[in-house]
Quinolinate synthase
Amino acid sequence: MDLHQKITELKKQKNAVILAHYYQVPEIQEVADYVGDSLGLSQKAAETDADMIVFAGVHFMAETAKILNPDKKVLLPDLMAGCSLADSCPPDAFRTLVEAHPDHVVITYVNCSAEVKALSDIICTSSNAEKIVNSVPKEVPIIFAPDKNLGKYIQKKTGRKMLLWDGACIVHEAFSMDKLLKLYKEHPGSKIIAHPESESHILETATYIGSTAGMIDYVKKHPAEKFIVATEAGILHKMQQEVPQAVLIPTPAEEDNTCACSECAFMKMNTLQKLYDCLLHETPQIEVSEEIRKKAILPIERMLELSK
Ligand code: 13P
Ligand code: SF4
C-alpha cells in the first residue's frame, strides 16, 4: 500500500477526519476529507462527529479545532507549523492594548493564538470580516487585530475607523508589484485576484478580493479566463481542478529568484509522511488549558453564529 492508501485505512480504523487548508501540498489535499478556507475549516471542526481530528494546516487552525472539541484528540503533523501573523501579536502586548481601550469591541482575525482569542470579543476570517465588523453598532469603536492589511481593507469597505494592530503575513506582504505588473502586461486580458492579507497597492490592482474559498468561487464563475493569483501558491491545486481550462498564474515574491510563486514555509512543513506518522502514533497533539479555552471559545462561537 502507498502512503495515501495507508492514511485512508488508518483514518477509517480510528474514525479520524482530515481537515486541510488550500495551502497544503497537493498530496495532502488529495487525502483530506475536507479542504477549505479558515471559516470552512472552523465550521467543519465545529460539526464533526469523528473521534479524532488531523489538522493539515498551521498551529492556530488546529488550536481553534481543539477549542471547539476539548474531548477529541486534535493532531497537527508538525507542531512547528506556525504563522507569522499569529506571531506578530504576543498576548501580553495585546492585553495591554485591550485594557487601555475598555470601550472598544475587539475583533480578531482567526490567525492568532488561543491566548489572543481569549482576549477578544469576536473572531473573524477573511471571508466574514466585513459582516462581523458591520455587526457592531456604528457608534462603538473597534480594535482590529492582528492583520493591518485586512484591517485597512475592511476599514475602506465599511467606512469604520478602527484601531489596527500592526501585524502582517510574510507571504502576502512579499508580493512584488513590479513582477505583478510585468505579468499583467505579458498576459493581456488577465484578471488579478487577491487575498486581503496583501498590501493595499496590490489590492488596488485586483478585480476580485476575497478569502481563498472566495477566490476559487470567483474563478469558477469565469472558467475560461486568465487569472493572476495573489495568494499562497498552494491554492492553485484545487483552483485548477475546479477550472481546468483557466490559465492560472501565481504572483511572485520580490526576493524570490528561484521559483515563480509564493509559498508559506509554515504551511509546507506538513508532509504526507508526517501526516501518516501523526495519525499512526496519535502525536503531536494540540493542548489548550481549560482556563484559556473557556474564554477563547466565546468569540469563536459568536463568529460561527454570525456566519450562518
Ligand atoms: P483563508 O483561507 O481563510 O482565506 O486564510 C488564508 C490564510 O492565510 C490562512 O493562513
Ligand atoms: Fe500565516 Fe501567512 Fe502562512 Fe497564512 S500564509 S499561515 S497568514 S504566514
User: Anything to note?
Assistant: The chain has a mean pLDDT of 96. The chain has 15 helices and twelve strands.
